[in-house]
């Protein structure tokens, strides 16, 4: 019993540490988003020029910087909360590939918006939000791992209405291109990394069944 208790405690400590580590990068990212808005207010300046302006040299820095720039505190809050929750989920459940997926979602979305967005300054982290939501949803489905599928269903419950942001004309003054292209980036990365990170567990009884089937097939081939 003492061995089981020790194992349970060590597993609990591991999961707690894993959770705390999963907070670091999302926390830093959201902090920088808030800091950018505070700088705007303190220095009475507009940092929208650090956003993405498609097919323009002056809009290139926005591929990296645009997620940190927001029109107002409401815009910031609408993006920071889902970004934090989704990225924490990414780093917790997909810790092996989380950093790669996060950075590639960020860069791919920015590049696609710079290439295909309309002529306007595109600012905000909503492209990354949609990219992470798409990655987490489709990764759970593709891996057929019940815990990750449950996470996918939870995302639908919490953020199902996000789908309306993928279409033009639904919301005013919203970069639907960032939403749509971020969503596409997330699907693409879910497919690319479907064999990396957490996988559907294989239990002992499943392995035994496979071995029995192989033995039966081997016996049949011998008889022939």
Features:
about 220 residues; mainly alpha; Rhomboid-like fold; 9 helices; about 0% strand; disordered C terminus
How is the secondary structure organized here?
Elements: H1 2-22, H2 24-42, H3 62-65, H4 73-93, H5 98-116, H6 126-143, H7 146-159, H8 176-192, H9 204-223
Helix pairs in contact: 1-4, 2-4, 4-6, 5-6, 5-8, 6-7, 6-8
Biggest sheet character: none
State the end-to-end CA separation. Answer: 52 Å
Q: Supply the helix-strand structural class.
A: mainly alpha
Report the CATH C-level class: Mainly Alpha
Summarize this entry quickly.
With 224 residues, the protein is mostly helical.
Overview of the structural elements:
With 224 residues, the protein is an all-alpha fold. Helices cover 68% and strands 0% of the residues. Helix 6 packs antiparallel against helix 7. It is globular and about 55 Å long.
């Amino acid at each position: 019993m003492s061995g089981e208790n020790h194992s349970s405690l060590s597993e609990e400590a591991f999961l707690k540490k894993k959770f705390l580590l999963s907070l670091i990068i999302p926390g830093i990212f959201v902090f920088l988003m808030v800091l950018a808005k505070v700088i705007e207010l303190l220095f009475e300046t507009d940092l929208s020029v650090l956003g993405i302006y498609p097919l323009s040299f002056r809009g290139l820095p926005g591929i990296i910087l645009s997620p940190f720039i927001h029109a107002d505190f409401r815009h910031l809050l609408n993006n920071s909360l889902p970004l934090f929750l989704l990225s924490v989920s990414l780093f917790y459940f997909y810790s092996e590939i989380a950093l790669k997926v996060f950075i590639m979602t960020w860069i791919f979305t920015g590049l696609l918006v710079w290439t295909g967005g309309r002529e306007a300054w595109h600012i905000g982290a909503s492209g990354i939000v949609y990219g992470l939501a798409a990655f987490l949803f489709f990764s759970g489905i593709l891996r057929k791992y019940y815990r990750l599928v449950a996470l996918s269903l939870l995302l639908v419950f919490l953020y199902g209405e996000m789908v309306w942001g993928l279409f033009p004309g639904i919301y005013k003054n919203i970069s639907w291109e960032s939403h749509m292209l971020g969503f596409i980036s997330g699907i693409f990365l879910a497919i690319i990394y479907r064999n990396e990170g957490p996988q559907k567990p294989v239990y002992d009884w499943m392995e035994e069944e496979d071995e029995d089937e192989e033995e039966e097939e081997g016996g049949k081939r011998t008889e022939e």
